[in-house]
Fold this protein.
Amino acid sequence: MTHPPSLATADEIRTYFIGQLNLALRRPGMFGNEGGLRMLITHLLFVERQPEAWSEQQRAWEEGGAWSSMGVTGALRDLVPDRSYDGTASIYAEFARRRGWLRPDRLLGRPEYRALRERVRSWVSEDRVWADVVDEFGAPSLLFGGTNPLYGKTLAYLGEEPEQPMVAFHLWNGSTPGTGSSWPPEHEEPLLLAVRSEGGDFRQSFAFTPEGERRRGELARTAG
């Protein structure tokens, strides 16, 4: 008689979902985009016996302006014309970090993080590209969206202290395939549109490059 296999423990299930969430944050398109992130998070919260934390986070996003009828994605797309989900993933990563789930590739030391925070808003007063961000601030703590330069992505930087806000650089390289725009994009690498600092009012947390302001204006005209 065949005996049923023993089931994974709660700790093993939690570890598995944390690993899957970290993969999904980095490549959201491979995991169902925002819906997939939400599913992994609600599963983790169920395992941790705190399912109410999701509703609380959703309310906090809504109050801060980071939630819409299309979730976080809709709120973000009102500001940057990114049709992918890497920017959305960076916002979900902030919640994952507060829960102790996030596994960054590196953390910035205090002097490095302080220098980034002091300079970044003036630094984005000029147009920049992907290589400029890495040359100036080093490899990111997290890369959302993969390494292909034909696609947009978000680079996030985290300090060693948990209370230090995440700083996210939103890069764009034209519309994704299937949207009616020409493909591949005309740019050799993604353009920086905006830098976002975690916390506070969502719209006020963005600092735009000149290119980002131009694209933001196009969005407003289209919506109008």
Notes: The first helix runs from residue 10 to 26. The two ends are 69 Å apart (CA to CA). Residues 176-180 have pLDDT under 50 and may be disordered. The beta strands are 142-144, 153-157, 167-172, 191-197, 206-208.
